[in-house]
Amino acid sequence: MRVAVHRLRSLHERTPDPFGLLPDEFSLRQLRELHEIVSGENLQADTFRRTMLPLLAPTGRALTQGRGRPAQTFIRRSELALRSDGEGDQGRET
């Protein structure tokens, strides 16, 4: 059982929603809440955002989640898009 929980948590550390538990479009807050449930701990919002944004594509739409301004929605980027972005960065110096 411990191995299964460890594998589940490891997958969620590297990918936004590996099992498709969220709808196709989701907010970062929804994604962070899912990751907090899986990890069993509170996650720092800024760090989570920086980690997940390269794995997501903005939809250009917003979602109203209670009070405050509407939240931007995202979709999961495809593996192909992630690979092609990584290849383009190899020749650049940072």
Automatic annotation (TrEMBL):
InterPro entries: WH-like_DNA-bd_sf (IPR036388), WH_DNA-bd_sf (IPR036390), WHD_NrtR (IPR054105). Pfam families: WHD_NrtR. Signal peptide: none annotated. Residues 18-74 form the NrtR DNA-binding winged helix domain. This is NrtR DNA-binding winged helix domain-containing protein. The lineage of its organism: Bacteria, Bacillati, Actinomycetota, Actinomycetes, Micrococcales.
